Amino acid sequence: MSHTAHIRSHRKPRRSASTLAVRAGVAGGVLSTLAVAGASGSANAAEPVTQTLELPTLTADLAAQAAQSADATEQAAANYQLQAERDAAAAKAAKKAEADLAEAKKKAAEAKKKAEEEARREAAARASRTAERTTLSASAGTGTVLGGSGTGSDADAGTSTSTSTSTATGSAATIVNFVRAQVGKAYVPGATGPSAYDCSGLVQTAFRQINVSLPRVSQDQSTAGTQVSLSNLQPGDILYWGSAGSAYHVGVYVGGGMFVGAQNSSTGVVERPLSYDPPTGAVRVL
Questions:
Q1: Most exposed among 31, 182, 185, 271, judged by the fewest C-beta atoms under 10 Å?
Q2: How far is residue 170's CA from residue 9's CA, in Å, rounded to a whole number?
Q3: Hey, what domains does the chain have and what are their CATH numbers?
Q4: Taking Cα atoms as reference points, which of 204, 182, 203 lies closest to residue 279?
Q5: Cα dist from 96 to 84, 90, 99, 108, whole Å
Q6: What is the pTM of this model?
Q7: Which value, in Å, is the radius of gyration of the alpha carbons in the chain?
Q8: pLDDT digits over 14-68, tens only?
Q9: Are 172 and 235 in contact (CB under 8 A)?
């Protein structure tokens, strides 16, 4: 026996080969299991990571698409609203243009009517001047005096002015005497005496002598009384030229087929036969 046999050896006891093999196998199996588990765990762990990375990308795309769709819808609505506003403005403009056209046509018609009336007045004035020149020329050859104070005679009248004076009485005589006293005075548009008159100014002033107030213009004077026939005239009746309510000239019938009127600036206030310038109608105020 060795002298050291009683001393415990510091070496670990040897293990048998079979024990080592079993342990190695177990260890290898454990390691394989761990490796498989690790690989499986790695695979399983990788999949959520992949899904986690992809989901935000898909969500962002969907959000972008939704935002684009909302923008497109909003833009379409804005376009529709703008088109509606344009259509409304166009309809309003068309309506206003139609109203303006109607107003323009109305004004054009009024202007045309006024121009025609002025043309008729001018034509009547020219005809009056022409007839007067013709009458004066004829009178110069016969020595007849026209437009006097009632003491002479008129070749066209067929009666003397003194005869027509004798038919007027009362207020009518006052009017007749007044207008005859104005014969020879000037014609001035807008004048009402005492040195000049226009046609309606002479008539208005004549009736004022008997305290009868007449309208100022010929249009109104032509409807101031009762309409009478030209075949049934009496001294003091108002004669008018044109239509009732739109007459362009007036005068006073003094009897015997004669009238006194402020004709125009060339003749002034004159006494003439009805045939000189036949009136359209007459009204009776007295």
A1: 31
A2: 184
A3: 144-284 (3.90.1720.10)
A4: 203
A5: 18, 10, 5, 18
A6: 0.46
A7: 62
A8: 555 555 544 555 455 545 555 545 545 544 544 555 555 555 555 667 778 878 8
A9: yes
